[in-house]
Protein 1
Amino acid sequence: MNTPEKIYMVGIGGVGMSALAQLYAAQGIAVCGSDREESPTTHLLRDKGIDVYIGQFAAQVPEDAQMLVYSDAVPNENPERIRGRELGIPELNYFEALGRAAEGKRVVAVAGTHGKTTTTAMIGKILIDAGEKPTIIVGSMVGEFGGNFVAGASDLFVVEACEYRRHFLVFHPEVLVITNIEFDHTDYFKDLGDVTAAFDEAKRQAQTVITSRVYRTEPVPDLLLLGEFNKENARAAKAAVHAIAPHIADAQIDRSLAAFAGTWRRFEHKGSMPNNVDVYDDYAHHPTAIAKTIDAARERFPGRLIVVAFHPHLYSRTRDLFDAFASALAKADFAYILPVYAAREAFDPSVSNEALAAAVQKRGGHASAVSGIPETAQKLKELGPGTIAITMGAGDVYKAGELALDK
């Protein structure tokens, strides 16, 4: 396929899709697309001159588009995808398109069940600060990048790579960073062995592989970010930079890591309410990430009440990791549990927030089910003095914190 001059993107507001759209625009390709609703990323795209349509209708697909790129969340029967096929427009999923965009580059791909977003951003920041001018695609907004994409002027290409549906196999990276491996994406992988097999295949495609065995002894400076898990992310980032750019001095790397302020939705302080109630937001949507985030909050804020508002993400993940979710949420002083965020999945009546709240209670925790974001926001407003409130999940639960703060 020749380089297209015009691309239409279905699900353009996704965090990865929006970064890819910016990459296309930076290359001089005419790009536009659609999404189901407004979001910080759709606003960002418009600010950069990229047209975004809200709502997905067949008539929006340009007849002269030479490629259609779609998000994993967009089904085959989507009207825009159907229209694209009627027009004979070649279509690629997000990772297929991203893999083509990375061809011929010195790719640093960051994969793992947890920590890949922060690690990707750390690597990118180090390389930018050292004057290496990398292109960066990261799965969150990074304040220091002005978004989730950096257009570089060198052949370095730093990218967050997801294992879902083995998508990361589109890359043949010079450096592959694996932060950790756990059973996740249970709607696709059969078990942990299946996940591990996918990572093993990714390793075979890489020139250099960075795992915890490589980076566990890397010394890192004190960080602005909380938790031992972020120190592990920093160690992984430092080892990756040693591999891709060995001329960068440790002192330069450490200065960049020490100044790194974090990313959107990774224990992000959203604001404070009356009575010294601090509201944080975190993307944690796997039991391990939930437990580690709660532990880190307790370490940072000893003696303060920790209340979590958790938005389960996907029926399959909630069902298959149900007991682990209950145990993790029982670590909080109290957990409000929202209805399952279905995303790409159909309704599953066997999984509910009420059942998960009951399971937390059985494990000695304290939890109750709430109806949605408005009720969650109200509960946050009613919290007692000194509480640390954390909205958690991969969906849009962050809106509850913003509503409670009247943002």
Protein 2
Amino acid sequence: MMGKQERSASLFYYLRLEDLIPENHLLRLVDRHIDLSFVRERLRPFYSSVGRPSIDPEVLMRLLLVGYFYGITSERRLMEEVRMHLGYRWFAGLGLEQEVPDHSTFSKNRHGRFRQAGIFREVFETLVERCVAAGLVEGKSLVVDGTMIEADASGDSRVPRERLGEVAQVSRTVREYLEELERENPVAEAAGEPEQVSTTDPDARWCSKGGPARMAYFDNYLMDAVSRVIVEVEATPASYPQEARAAKRMLERVQERGLCPHSVRGDMGFGKGEFLTWLVGQGIAPHIPPKDHRRRIAAAITQEDFRYAPEEDVYYCPAGKPLRYSAPARRNQAHLYRSTKEQCQGCRLQPQCTTGPYRTIAVSWHEPARQVVRSLVGTPAYQQSHRARYRIEGLFAELKQRLRLSRVRLRRLWNVAEQFQLAATVQNIKRLLAFLTRPAAPPLPSPCCEGRKV
């Protein structure tokens, strides 16, 4: 006989949340292996010693991590999910009889105590230290790259920079942005600032990377090549010159924390001369294709065809005529070497060499570092790091597809940085748990049992 389920509610239920969470559940593993109690101690100075007790900051941090683990980007929706999901309640330490925090609580703490304490970065760095202590991260070979994340602003919100003062009268966001610029650079605007600025999110930049242009940020990762643990993360406006600067800042921070990288792998976007020179000076092998602006025209004489005589500081052309030092080109960060009209007149190679009355070559100030990079190309270590460089793309795919952070939800650079730090923390936790809970290798057979039939 067909049964029928009657919907009825009992007055009392006897259960424990602890008994309902499977032993191999992700949140149970996080609770077992990751200690987050330091969050409470770190934020204690930012709370008053009198008054009504507030929500435990560790609970708020655990709820935020749940949102990033399961791709719940909206805090309002996250609180709705916590009300219904027993596992989320158990991980946060909220019993069935306890009220779930309001979504506005996150905003108040994020813009107040959490930002003052820098707790999101501290949580990220603590997890990296945990990975190092567990033997997961070696930190010798690193990979650097960035991905573009769409900002919460449209291209239609952009106005010319000279109109920002007018817009600031009605927009608090723009007013705060101009005040920050004044504090950081009161004399003049920083070089490279865009001509148009978004009034919705002034820190975002109009950028195109493999698709249509949009307002965006760059999420820069510095990854351990072996374990794929993110050892550093940096948020920058979506501007290509920012990539190498972010890479340098990330490397400086990991060195301060005790890591000693031997090599760094990146794409050509990180091949700027200044960055390469800094890497060589730090004793780090730059496995990065250098940006080479030398002319490469078929059937023409290029800079590679000139021979340098260091004892004379002179370049000799293929016809044997000297090009002597002329002047520095500070804008291009290069040294200029020139021949004379008399030397080039009547030269049989002039049609292949130059269309002007004399030949000029520009030698980058960072040419020694570029030579170091060229000498590394093709070596076994370079080829190995070249293969590892593509592993970082998997982290970006996970970031956008699993964590659903293809578009940031908050505005301004500091808010975006916090989102990137939390996302990188969650990615590292997953790798640390996989390392700590990996199955033990089966024991080798005893030598005394070899050849014996069982």
Protein 3
Amino acid sequence: MLALFSAAALPALLFWTTPPRTAFAQPLKPMIISVSSPREISAAPILMAKHLGYFKDEALDPRFVVMSSDIAMKGLISGDVDLVSSVSSVVKATAVGIPVKTVLNYFDGSFFYLVTRPEIVKIEQLRNKIVAISRYGSATDFDARAALRHFGLDPSKDVSVLAVGGGTARIVGLVSGRVDAAILNSLEKIAAEKAGMKALLLTGQYAKQPVGGLGTSVQRLTERRDDIRRSLKATYRTFSLIQTDRNKTKAFLIDALDVKPEHADGVYDDLIKVFLPSGKIDLKHLAASYDDARKQAPQAAPVPLSALVDYSLLDEIKTLPR
């Protein structure tokens, strides 16, 4: 198990694992789940399920592993990873025939912000400027281009979209003046504002896409179907809480994701704007990710949009008492 990682590297990647149990406690079954960050807002439902003990209620021990989306997909296909939280990567893989499925969606848009240098007060001023994203083909890339097009700028001609890496690198590039704007998440936006930068607009309102959720392999859906079902049940328990209990959700953001109390309301509001209480995304909002993947692999056999998802387990757990 976990041949994908070296024995030395794995302990540094795992976090929030269950502490040792007494010999009389019911053993919990481990689930390896990839996330992009231990405090990623887009993974809030599953992190909240762990935080509130919902996985333990299902006799599961979720072991979150921080890894890039490409490594996560390799782990999913090899069987070293049970679930991945980067559903946009799952959609793209399924689109070219790789046997993986999206089984739960959290959001249908990002809570990224377009943050600019202080002298830039409207998006049109980004003509002939540099906008920093994490990597090409990512949610930050998709959001940047959608927002630019919405305001009449051609991202392939009028603006230079530059992949610079993680949020910290984007903030450094922005503050140092090496880039003129950056796509940052809610927490990164706050850090940039403290450094004098300007949060120009929330980009998620201009681009519908799969952001956050759970994907797994077809093999896992067959061989560990009950474990996947219980993982979805634990995660989906948070959905009604997130939607109806603002204070408890804010407490989680503060306690587990290190959101400052004074920022919790704003982060919560951003989250709710793109939240999918049904756990399902409209298939048309998968089209951009699908098309991007097909462009990269035009010879792959056609795959219908309906084949990108498998909500059968989600439908099952919705009939069960919470």
Protein 4
Amino acid sequence: MATQELELGSELVERVAAIDIAKASGMVCTRVPHATRPERRVQEVRNVASTTEAIMELGEALVALGVTRVVMEATGVYWRPFFFLLESCGLECWLVNARDVKNVPGRPKTDKLDAIWLAKLAERGMLRASFVPERPIRRLRDLTRLRAALTQERTRHKHRVEKLLEDAHIKLSSVATNLFGLSARNMLDALVAGERSPERLADLAQGKLKSKHRALVTAFNGQFDEHHAYVLGTLLAAIDHVQSQIDNLTRHIETSLTELSGPQADLGTKRPAPLGGALTAVERLDEIPGIGAITAQIILAEIGLDMSVFPTPGHLVSWAKLSPRTIQSAGKNFPGGTGQGNPWLKGALGEAAMAAARTDTFLGARYKRLVKRRGHGKALVAVARSMLVIVWHLLDDPQARFHDLGADYHQRLTDKATRTRGLIRQLEALGHDVTISTRTTAD
């Protein structure tokens, strides 16, 4: 343990601790006022193992020192034991972005110096805390993220099935719109069971697929053998197993949301839980074009129910990295990328924005207005940003409901006389003489 006295500067936080975290340990630096000389600071650095017992002992020591803030850099998942255990000791814990804690160039880099540098930044108020939701929301995140991962795994298995059928010269996907619909799945099960007759396989078609009987017979005229049947059966079993896991997770997510909606739910918020509860929040978010129940659950799991952590909608969209940055140099402004942000939230909003862009609503009209001059990608980001602003207002006011402004919202705002003069000028610039005749509307 190293101890030294330093001169007091213009500190904003008197008693701080900083932790440079590794997998098996953390380098802890504490900076507190000197006991007898207020103009001095006492700095201590020590290495602490990342075990529960060692971290709890550290928490007791920090509480005894009167530390009011513990700052740590986000390092993989290794920050979690330190953050949550020290938080349980009553300490205020801040998780900071590594980008905001860069060391001074040319300075030696060691764990000890990194911890000291982090502590100095913390005591001068030069860091911003990252958003770390409370335990109920973190658990809901685990469920929704696992469901998304399993959904991706199911999709990979389905792609393998199509690849296998192509290897066996079975062109079912060229005839059936959904390779895993009711009719197509019955045909695949029949192939696994040993059926090889194209006619009998085509007879399993139901609904609209019956009209494609001849095309189905041609599609099944391949070289499907027992090897293909074994692999296909394995893949279908894997798809069914993953699907059952997804269904169980969805039910567990709905149950968790029900528990969060209870009047006694403790979310660690600064104000009471929203009236109507989380299920009502899911239903209200579901009213936004492009957002379904699954997407609403993902949004709530990523941003939580309490919007007091995001003072304005601008803070939320900035945290989600859906607002472009402006880079200025030599008096010139250059466009900057939005950044990476939360991939789970941005992925869900991106899919919702693509769905909303195809609707005859305000969000759909917004996409159509922007895509002409900004391109598809930027138009989708703008629509996703608008959706997140709507979500903020709905969660901030539990009594608010979504009301679509309509696809003609911007047209209603446009002054007709101004619009008319502009169109006349354009026609005159093309060499036309324009005569205006106002049409009267019959009562």
